């Protein structure tokens, strides 16, 4: 018989305290994990300058993320190299859910076919979260150009000699579309790459470039003010807020029906629990009628998806963009 029962009672009590402490530690570990993400501000990289379509639309979404998740979503513009600098910064960050990037169709489906060391591999280096938006590109000219249709513009342009067009960088859709347009219409056109539409537009208004096929959102306020005129839109149907503007196909230019789109992406290895929570929140935001209206006013359509749907869309469009890159002479 144990002559020191008090030692047994003390041992039992100590064991209970230890178990209790272990439970507290475990609960603390669980609370600090993805289940309470985010518990500090989140960096949202926009790989283009402030004022362009990607910046504008991402800011609308970030504002709603703050309201729904209770943390700041801080926009950081990191333009350059057709958006590759900003995406590279996202890829280099810790995969903890606190750095996102608004990656475009260029990062997901075009860059793999262009010889550029700045490009990240979308299937290796980063992971999709959810689609954010899609929008048509618009063939736009400054109001001083005496053309109101695509045919009139082509006829006018051929009498001007070499004309310059602006884009958001080599290999972007805003470079590839005008290159194809010039090739198919026989225009003598020189490419002038900028860091984004925020730089292309002033160049167009000052006379340095004569046209662009660029994201509609970036140009809406200038279209409304009459400074810039849209001649046609890419996509399969007319845009609701510009019903008088024909599609490129209607204007006699088939095979210009692809839209521009963007999706949030995170570094490869980011916990799936964080990705799923972010995707679910983005689905709620895209379904908000107020958000959908704000997007429509500026020329975009709010979207959401699963990560797998983003990857599937990119895979579906890569063959088309691969051929476009080849025709533009940019194949690596």
TrEMBL record:
Keyword Signal: yes
Alphabetized UniProt keyword annotations: Signal
InterPro entries (UniProt xref): BUG (IPR005064), Bug_dom1 (IPR042100)
Range of residues in the leader sequence: 1-26
Residue ranges of coiled coil: none
Superkingdom of source: Bacteria
Similarity comment: Belongs to the UPF0065 (bug) family.
Name of the protein described by the UniProt record: Tripartite tricarboxylate transporter substrate binding protein
């Amino acid at each position: 018989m144990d002559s020191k029962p008090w030692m047994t009672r003390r041992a039992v009590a100590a064991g209970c305290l230890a178990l209790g402490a272990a439970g507290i530690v475990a609960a603390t570990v669980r609370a600090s994990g993805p289940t309470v993400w985010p518990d500090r501000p989140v960096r949202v990289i926009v790989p283009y300058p402030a004022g362009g379509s990607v910046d504008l639309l991402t800011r609308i979404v970030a504002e709603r993320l703050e309201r729904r998740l209770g943390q700041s979503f801080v926009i950081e513009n990191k333009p350059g190299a057709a958006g590759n600098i900003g995406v590279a910064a996202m890829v280099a960050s810790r995969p903890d859910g606190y750095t996102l990037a608004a990656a475009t169709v260029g990062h997901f489906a075009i860059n793999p076919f262009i010889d550029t060391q700045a490009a990240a591999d979308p299937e290796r280096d980063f992971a999709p979260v959810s689609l954010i938006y899609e929008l048509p590109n618009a063939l736009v000219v400054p109001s001083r150009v005496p053309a109101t249709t695509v045919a009139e513009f082509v006829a006018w342009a051929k009498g001007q000699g070499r004309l310059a067009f602006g884009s958001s960088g080599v290999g972007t859709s805003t470079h590839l579309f005008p290159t194809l347009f010039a090739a198919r219409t026989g225009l003598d056109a020189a490419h002038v790459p900028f860091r984004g539409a925020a730089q292309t537009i002033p160049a167009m208004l000052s006379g340095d470039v004569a046209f662009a096929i660029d994201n509609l959102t970036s140009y809406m306020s200038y279209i409304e003010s009459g400074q810039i005129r849209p001649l046609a839109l890419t996509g399969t149907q007319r845009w609701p807020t510009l019903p008088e503007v024909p599609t490129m196909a209607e204007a006699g230019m088939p095979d210009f029906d692809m839209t521009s789109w963007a999706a949030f992406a995170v570094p490869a290895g980011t916990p799936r629990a964080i990705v799923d929570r972010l995707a679910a929140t983005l689905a709620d935001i895209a379904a908000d009628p107020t958000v959908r209206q704000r997007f429509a006013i500026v020329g975009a359509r709010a979207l959401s998806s699963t990560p797998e749907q983003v990857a599937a869309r990119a895979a579906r469009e890569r063959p088309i963009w691969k051929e476009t890159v080849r025709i533009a002479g940019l194949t690596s």
